[in-house]
Write a structure and sequence with these properties.
- The chain is elongated, with a radius of gyration of 25 Å.
- Helices cover 10% and strands 40% of the residues.
- The strands form four sheets. It has a 15-stranded mixed β-sheet that branches.
- The chain has five helices and 27 strands.
- It folds into three domains: 128 residues, Jelly Rolls (Sandwich); 206 residues, TIM Barrel (Alpha-Beta Barrel), CATH 3.20.20.140; 91 residues, Immunoglobulins (Immunoglobulin-like, Sandwich), CATH 2.60.40.10.
- It is mainly β.
């Protein structure tokens, strides 16, 4: 789907000279802790076609870090849709125009009234920090039409069940990445990925507008970077659609924000839940609406993240594990690590259905095939993400197959504990035999030479406790 905003060009004789206003603010460590987000109001007169916001402050070698965002007139309450963009600390000068804006900011009509510069106090040193904000408004002729804001098509790109490979966490220059959305899509196609979720920090600006990416499913997304941890939201829809990120640790509003995203058809995934990054670890409650969790952080697996995943699984929460590269820049592959999702076709709806069902394998590289895992009890059979019904004490056979994994080590986990290990034979097969004793879940980890290659999502066992 796509849409275009038709604009009337302003005659040159109606344009006015730019108006500049500079506002000075000082923030202390107390402000950073008590009022993480500060708002600096400024006036926009009628007829304005361009706003330029810039700010300067002494970074003190990283002791001070101030993020930037802009809101148009309207409420600033949590969940508001008045945000016009967010660039964090990546840009010291941004432009918002009727027909064109800086990366991370939505173009479109500029309503007259009181706007706000958002200053996110990520870090404030012991001596505090002075911030000078300068706002320039002007009325200039515009091109006549805004760029279309497009969203990915609902039609499948390919039909038929398969293990589709993709990257679910990547950034562009709309936040702190270096590539444009088109360049990122080109990189994904060069790596032969089937799907790509663009997850810029705190915005979804023009992620798929004008993209030329035949054969690649591009999913709109956002990484909401709250002070209590980061989470991805995949599948946001309409123009200027986003999820609010201003949720402080311990705020029960996390439940409402996640529920609202789910009601709009999106999926929510916790990112790098245990991280060395300041403010990146997950300290919120885990809302019922969370579908997935990253078990990777600067590599294929974060042991602490896997522990958190297992804790949720043992509580009966069927949360899907994923691996991502969280790609920003450099020569490293976008799809290392990545996921393969078993889906009925290559469409957003089908990929989402596969993720919800747990039909997902986390892989060190998107070029790897998914190891096939099945569990059997009598005539019953279940695959990754499914449930196997077994009688108490009944024999359960777990079968792992994959010709490319010949000689690799397969570890079998039961309810989060490693209980057995074997080597994949030359026929590409490994078999475990267990007996159903209680409800729980199996999964396998595949490694070679000490390097983890694959982590499967669970096969759940429904069984009465053996007497």
């Amino acid at each position: 789907m796509s849409g275009a905003l038709v604009l009337l060009a302003i005659p040159a004789w109606l344009t006015s000279s730019p108006t500049t206003q500079t506002i000075h603010r000082h923030f202390t460590p107390r402000d950073q802790q008590v009022g993480r987000y500060q708002y600096v109001p400024f006036d926009v007169p009628a007829g304005t076609t361009k706003i330029v916001v810039s700010y300067v402050y002494d970074r003190r070698g990283g002791a001070n870090v101030i993020d930037l965002g802009v809101y148009e007139p309207g409420p600033l309450d949590l969940g508001t849709r008045t945000i016009r963009g967010w660039s964090g600390g990546e840009q010291s000068r941004v432009t918002i125009g009727i027909d064109e804006s800086s990366p991370g900011y939505w173009p479109g009509p500029l309503p007259a009234g009181s706007w706000s510069v958002q200053l996110g106090l990520y870090k404030v040193g012991a001596d505090g920090v002075h911030v000078d904000v300068t706002v320039e408004t002007s009325s200039e002729p515009v091109s006549g039409s805004a760029r279309p804001i497009a969203r990915s098509s609902a039609a499948p790109i390919r039909s038929g069940p398969a293990w589709y490979a993709g990257a679910l966490h990547a950034h562009t220059n709309n936040s702190d990445g270096v590539l444009t959305p088109q360049e990122l899509a080109d990189k994904a196609r060069a790596e032969q990925l089937d799907f790509l979720a663009i997850t810029d920090h705190n915005n979804t600006v023009n992620q798929v507008a004008d993209l030329a990416a035949p054969g690649l499913l591009v999913i709109t997304g956002e990484e909401a970077t709250t002070p209590g941890g980061h989470f991805n939201v995949w599948g946001l829809g309409g123009a200027r659609d986003y999820v609010d990120f201003r949720i402080l640790p311990g705020d029960p509003a996390i439940h409402r924000i996640v529920s609202d995203a789910r009601s709009r058809g999106a999926l929510v995934s916790i990112n790098h839940p245990i991280s060395a990054c300041f403010g990146c670890s997950w300290t919120h409650a885990v809302p019922d609406g969370v579908t997935a969790i990253e078990i990777s952080d600067n590599g294929m697996q974060s042991p602490a993240a896997v522990q958190m995943w297992d804790m949720l699984l043992r509580q009966g929460r069927r949360v899907t594990a994923i691996a991502t590269s969280d790609w920003h820049r450099g020569t490293t592959p976008l799809g290392a690590p990545a996921v393969r999702v078993w889906a009925d076709g290559l469409s957003t709806a089908a990929i989402f259905a596969g993720i919800r069902a747990g039909h997902v394998v986390a892989l060190a590289s998107s070029s790897q095939p998914a190891p096939l895992v099945t569990a059997r009890a009598g005539a019953a059979e279940a695959a990754i993400g499914d449930e196997l019904r077994a009688a108490a004490g009944e024999r359960v056979q777990i079968d792992v197959r994959g010709e490319t994994y010949s000689g690799a080590t397969v570890d079998l986990f039961w309810n989060g504990d490693r209980i057995d290990s074997t080597i994949v034979g030359e026929d590409g097969r490994a078999v475990f035999e267990r007996f159903a004793t209680m409800p729980g879940y199996y999964r396998v980890h595949v490694s070679r030479g000490g390097s983890l290659l694959a982590v499967t999502n669970p096969i759940y066992i429904s069984a009465e406790r053996a007497r």
